[in-house]
Amino acid sequence: EDSEHFIFFLYNFLISLIIPFALVRHILKASSFGEKRLQALEKIGFFKGDKNSNKSIWIHAVSVGEVNVALKLIQDLEGILENPNFILSTTTLTGARKAKENLNKNSIHVYFPFDLKFICKKFINFYKPSILLLVETEIWPNLINVFNEFKLPVVLVNGRLSNKSLKKYQRLNFFFKSSFNKINHAFVQSKNDFERFYEAGVKEDAMSVTGSIKFDANSASPKNFNENEINYYKEKYVFVCGSTHPGEEEILIESFIDLKKENKHLVLAPRHPERFNEIKELLKEKKLTSILYTEISSNPNDKSDVTIVDVIGRLLDFYEIADYVFIGGTLVDHGGQNFLEPAYFHKPIISGRSTYNFEEISKKLEDLDLLRFVSNKDEITHAIENMEAISDPLKQEIDLWLDESRGASKLISQKICEKFKLI
Predict the structure, then answer these.
(1) Tens digits of per-residue pLDDT, 396-411?
(2) Residue 48 vs residues 5, 41, 143, 227: alpha-carbon distances, Å
(3) What whole-number distance in Å separates Cα of residue 48 and Cα of residue 110?
């Protein structure tokens, strides 16, 4: 116990050295008293509004993908509980935007506070959460420790843990194992995740394999394009590259140049849309013309080679009209983004080998012959050139798998309410 106290003291000391620099960075980024300033203040425990008078369910989701999971969970919990209050925290600005656009009047959004003990205590006293739901893999030692001190449950939902992440935690096993051990229950996606979380320190009897909420959160077709946008892409062969990272765009552009398809058109949707100027410069170097997605409605007759998606939240629209899809974060060592979104539209997919964030889903899509793994520009071009049409029997098989995989959100919601007596 003394060694654990010393480790936490050291951890807090190191964080306290980092926070002033992080705060200055946040404030310097803010050009006015806008969202970035709010983010910085909430991170250090300056919360807006009045103290919460009702107990709330706190859900932490890092960014857009985790927010989608959290929103589905909120929807199902609202179907079970009577007038529940939710606090949905995010780390990123894009996650915040997604949360604020979709939360109802009984729910509030806040930015996730720094993991310092006094800030965590201040958060609990201000917002009065009765339970903490951490989405996927969010292990914050001070926060978990403080919830434990307040005798409030910490629950991991949609838990996933790759081999790569497990090894990182095990390097500091003497520190993180106690945090994993204090998780009251972990609802994990697969048997592999179960085994890894057990190795990390979660108690075996405090885990359930419940599948992935991502199957529930990404099942609807949006159809949000306006008439000009629909017409702009109608006669084109559209190669959509979703959630791309630095180091991937150049490979994809070179592959597109080599592609022998009539009326070919490349859509680059960077993981961080603010990178659009950087990508425009790269395209100029390759002698390709480009247009921003937000410019298409006012320029429906544009003849550019490439669309750069400079907004968030529109990937599903592009996947729906795509002829071929590349999933970003896979040619670089980032573990991949959401493979399920194009699968719902039966789109042929290519991906690099780094898929540890969607390990089992990507393997299943490969088995279904909807996904091809590639390593370089020539393999990308070859895969697209030799694509076979998706047959009706294969579409039915994909739909059956997607249908059978749904239901995790309702199951987890019910189990949380029963196990922690929220009803």
Answers:
(1) 999 999 999 999 999 9
(2) 32, 9, 20, 41
(3) 9
